[in-house]
Amino acid sequence: MYFEVNGKQVFASTGGRPFDNRKPTVIFLHGSGLDHTFWGLHARFFAFRKYAVLVPDLPGHTHSEGPALASIEAMADWLNDVTEALDANDISLVAHSQGCLIALEFASRFPDKVLSASLIASGLATPVNDFLLNAAENDPDAAIAMMLGWGFGSAGHMHQGPIPGSSMVASAGKVMRGNVPSALAADLKACNDYKNGKEAASGMAGPIQVIVAGKDRMAPRKATMELAEHLADPEVTLIPESGHMIPQEVSNQCRALLKEFIFSNNPAT
Amino acid sequence: MSRFLNFDTLSLHAGQVVDPEFGARAAPIYQTTSYVFPDTDTASSIFNLERGGHAYSRITNPTVGVLEQRIAALEGGSAAVCTSSGMAATFCAITAILEQGDHIVASTQMYGGNISLMKNTLPRFGITTTFVDPTDTDGFRNAIQENTKLIYGELIGNPGLDILDLEEIGKIGVDHHVPVMIDATFNTPYLCRCFDYGANMTVHSLTKWMGGHGVAIGGVVVDGGNFDWGTTDKFPTITEPYAPFSGIKFWEEFGPSAFATRIRAEAMRDIGPSMSPMNAFLLLQGIETLSLRMGRHLSNTMDLLDYLSNHDQVSWVNHPSLPSHSSHELARKYLPKGAGSIISFRVHGGREAGKAFIENVELASHLANVGDAKTLIIHPASTTHSRIDADALVAAGITEDMIRLSVGLEDVADIKADFENGFRATKRVANG
């Protein structure tokens, strides 16, 4: 659905059901250069189980009006504006990679809004090397190739997909190609500049779930475990065989973990 | 792995997870109609497109899925849907986005089945087509109407072998917000990945070079994932709610694979032209050696072009790799490895001499197929294109004395020796 935030048009998938703010809300946050389609199957799953679902395209990404936002803090503020605009309540955050940094900031600043947070494949910070930062601005195809090459584990490189017949790595590439250079470059710079992870993590309250990829080359396992150490009593699950793109590479396993955690901590009746 | 796998490696591995229970290296043949659900929640999730998985082999099948993902990988597409034949793929692809009152702009040089579909069958459903000479790129632009929803052609036209100027056709599609669908059967992704040049979807008869062995009929639609369906309201089947799936909007929810998902959700369910697991397995075996076979097809083709061009019984030889072909430069651009392994030629002595040639070769098989491992010949005017009228025959570049040759993988010296038998017969006819 389309709606306005701060005078700009925003798109958010609602998982195939109309958004109903009387229900508990699950907000899915995508990673750098991606969009709502990253969460497609998961969003439908929760939307058809009595949750209000929001999967926004960040500003400047795919269907949301630009420009892209320049900092993680600004993205968290924007997310708060989204929740205000839609009067979304009883929020469960589900975030991947860069989305986790936004979730950390949002949950620590607006703790009353968040009932649970699921953080997948991220860290307290996500430093980005200069080579990738430069490529995102000046050679987007090379940047996309690097991100997809590092981002997907062997399942992605073998062109498997969450739906039979689909290639997750090709689909992600097509989405990213539509979000270069401005959105991808802004995302990576915002990730690289973000320094408030430790403070934000310690400010988070409520149940937190951390899902770690054993073969993650974008947010190495060590970095995600460090994030977990700074959170209050998180539920940590390691998926040994997955690369960085857990929600797609091992989508059934990921959904099972999310289902159990969100159903128990933010039940929809 | 941190770098992408190359074409030959993808031909062998893409789409397959090694069987976790028995470690089977080949893709197993899942010869089953249906699948036991572990619980009701999983069952409903699969039916409602909330998770991957298999419910019924008319819609998806694990063996077919390996083939689909392998072809998507080779083409550079976001998703693929396999069908029972190439014509089924074409029908499903067209009807996924067109409906009564819509219009196609298509090449005149196409397989007779494609032409018949658009000229005879689709008009019964209110879908009309304007046919344009594939060498007349401006003609495609001029033929676009307000209700045009598709540009369709074969990169290597059949049987005249004229090459579409794909980049220019792609620009016309962008200018008018009309997707470009290419029947890529003759080129295969080994010779040209059409999405790199502006095509938005491809269809294949996998029966031909992709499978290569002439043992299984099959087709596929590949979604390029590069068409912005939402720019206008022209494509409601992709952008508007689809009632049978709780009002799903394919474009919103599936983005780059919206088109393929629509075909899966509607055509495979309501029409049901599914590929059998056995055929998928056989086609996978063929694709494993696609590069090797195509290399040999091309080298034999070049050898035979030289042989035929210098033969005193041959009056005319047609192939885009020949500098004399009007599409030679386009072939060099889009098909740098080679312009396929179909040759058309004429023999001195007209229709009777052509008939004598076909009846006196033994190694080359006289049949209605192309892209087999074995060399094939046919007389298009009396077979593959016999159901199209005289004007369309002329438009397709077919003459009554034309022989179409699909070059196989035999030792080329044996093909030439076989052809000499045919040419001795044509000489007898020509000399009265």
Q: Topology of this protein?
A:
The complex is a heterodimer of chains A (269) and B (432).
Chain A: E1 2-5, E2 8-13, E3 25-29, H1 40-47, E4 52-56, H2 72-86, E5 91-96, H3 98-109, E6 114-120, H4 130-138, H5 140-151, H6 154-157, H7 168-177, H8 182-193, H9 197-202, E7 208-213, H10 221-229, E8 235-239, H11 246-249, H12 251-265
Parallel strand pairs in A: 3-4, 3-5, 5-6, 6-7, 7-8
Antiparallel strand pairs in A: 1-2, 2-4
Helix pairs in contact in A: 2-3, 4-5, 4-8, 5-7
Chain B: H1 7-13, H2 40-47, H3 62-75, E1 79-83, H4 86-97, E2 103-107, H5 112-121, E3 128-132, H6 137-143, E4 148-154, H7 166-176, E5 180-183, H8 188-191, E6 201-205, E7 219-223, H9 236-239, H10 250-254, H11 258-271, H12 277-288, H13 290-309, E8 314-318, H14 328-334, E9 342-347, H15 350-360, E10 365-366, E11 376-378, H16 390-395, E12 402-406, H17 412-430
Parallel strand pairs in B: 2-3, 2-4, 4-5, 5-6, 10-11
Antiparallel strand pairs in B: 1-7, 6-7, 8-9, 9-12, 11-12
Helix pairs in contact in B: 1-3, 3-12, 4-11, 15-17
Description:
The complex is a heterodimer of chains A (269) and B (432). Helix content of chain A is 43%, strand content 16%. Chain A has 269 residues and is of the alpha/beta class. Chain A has a single domain, classed as 3-Layer(aba) Sandwich (Rossmann fold), CATH 3.40.50.1820. In chain A, strand 7, helix 10 and strand 8 (235-239) form a beta-alpha-beta unit. Chain A starts with a strand and ends with a helix. In chain A, 58% of the residues are buried. By secondary structure, chain B is an alpha/beta fold. Chain B folds into two domains: 7-286, Aspartate Aminotransferase, domain 2; 291-430, Aspartate Aminotransferase, domain 1 (Alpha-Beta Complex). Helices cover 40% and strands 13% of the residues of chain B. Chain B has 17 helices and twelve strands. Chain B has helices at residues 7-13, 40-47, 62-75, 86-97, 112-121, 137-143, 166-176, 188-191, 236-239, 250-254, 258-271, 277-288, 290-309, 328-334, 350-360, 390-395, 412-430, and strands at residues 79-83, 103-107, 128-132, 148-154, 180-183, 201-205, 219-223, 314-318, 342-347, 365-366, 376-378, 402-406. In chain B, the strands form two sheets. In chain B, strands 1-7-6-5-4-2-3 form a seven-stranded mixed β-sheet, with helices on both faces. Chain B has a five-stranded mixed β-sheet with strand order 8-9-12-11-10. In chain B, helix 8 links the parallel strand 5 (180-183) and strand 6. In chain B, helix 1 (7-13) packs antiparallel against helix 3 and helix 15 crosses helix 17. The chains are: A alpha/beta (269), B alpha/beta (432). Chains A and B meet through helix 1, helix 5, helix 6, helix 7 and helix 12 of A and helix 3, strand 1, helix 10 and helix 11 of B.
